[in-house]
From TrEMBL:
InterPro entries: DUF1883, DUF1883-like_sf. This is DUF1883 domain-containing protein. Residues 81-103 are annotated as: Disordered. Residues 6-92 form the DUF1883 domain. It comes from Rhizobium herbae.
Amino acid sequence: MTKLKFNFTHYDLKQQRAGVTIEITLSAVANVRLMTDNNFQLYKEAMKHQFVGGVARKSPIRLVIPQSSHWHVVVDMEGHHGHSESSIRIVETAAPPRFQSAS
């Protein structure tokens, strides 16, 4: 099994619902990948995987969970020099308005 040849920072977001926004703060240009649990396993094995995100040239960046599932965020420096410190927070989306019945 092939393993990655570079370090990465991993955030396990657990189960998240579609529409939740994730905000990632970086100290330098880095790759930011939001991926499902299955894709994260493929990523760790250096296999083809799918993700939302890419090269983050500004900070903070926001990514939206596209579907309800178990999600991970990875920050790595593949193709970049140096190191980037990172932090992450979940930005709750506004709840849809609740309709009240007229009495």
